[in-house]
Amino acid sequence: MAYFKNIGKIVYEGRESDNPLAFKHYNPQEVVLGKTMEEHLRFAVAYWHTYVGDGSDPFGIGTAIRPWDSLTGMDKAKARVEANFEFMEKLGLPFFCFHDRDIAPEGETLQETNANLDVIVALLKDHMRSTGKKLLWNTANMFTHPRYTHGAGTTCNADVYAYAAAQLKKSLEIGKELGAENYVFWGGREGYESLLNTDMALELDNLARLYRMAIDYAKEIGFDVQFLIEPKPKEPTKHQYDFDAATTIAFLRKYELENHFKLNLEANHATLAGHTFEHEIRVAAINGMLGSLDANQGDLLLGWDTDEFPTDLYATTLTMYEVLKAGGLGRGGVNFDAKVRRGSFEPEDLFHAHIAGMDAYAWGLKAAARLIEGKVLDAFVEERYRSFREGIGADIVAGRATLASLEQYALQNKPIRNESGRLERIRAALNEAIFGV
Fold it and tell me: Which of 25, 49, 99, 275 is flagged as catalytic?
């Protein structure tokens, strides 16, 4: 059955095209810095927003019109699988991502839930085999059900912890079965509302224990996967334990887990943490923990996770600049963890949204490549820090300097002359890289 009957194959038509259902910038086979756009970007569709999301918000019920709306239960789950591969084929998306509860409904018991998953996983595997599409990552939804009201890996209830471990075990088995390249931990309720009733030390210790169990079980079943943690500062809890990249890296190092994990970074989560996306990517990259990206953007006038499709060309350019400078995403990719606006409720809007996001990232990739090839930013940075490449600066960097030697140098009372950071000039150069013809 075709679910998007009025939509054909979306192809690259170039910047002069006036076809809204065509790519203006994303040309999968175009080579940029030695790799094709498809290889650089590794786009993925987010199952939850695209097929499960209904446009509801805290103030109103869903508005989305979807071809599978008339179905329920496992029939709806099977229809979504078919729609997913049709959607991916028409957009040329190589990857998809899902939570376990996105693909199959939860049953009355864990046994029934797992049986539902087995049916859908077999269907997914068949479609993957026939289409060549791949699973970028999967994860377990351990935040929606009321049992997780106090968290999963950081719950105060040992019975809930055991259930979470069982759900995680099944999710790892699914990842192996479908050949997932990554497995993501998103701590939806791994945090706290108040320290007045929280044993933070126990909660963090238990979370680390759960991660170690996952590492051990993946080895046991031969699941060759990159584990990722997705930082988020708040929502739904007041303070998430994986607040941002730096906090998450500190956690991993405290528990000696840093060699087993990288980070799955989301743009809107960076905004909520008071950072830019490029800041979070740089922090992860310089610590050797850049894994994958969730591509979206927030609304700076709103204080919550709006998950809009990425269309800000400055943001996508600086994002891809950081990714390219870090050597790429490796096994990761660019997953559109984004949802159409509540007023964009027709099925066709799903295509318009993904086209806009894919074109924005392709534009950003090309602009970032121009910055790198022309050494536009590198030249400024190298010049700004040149004092650390000679004389006393070289001694500091080489570790030869001591407080005493630096004091002796300062006592010479040589004139100190700072130079301008030339930020406005740099921003003008950035404009030219993005919009210059």
Answer: 99
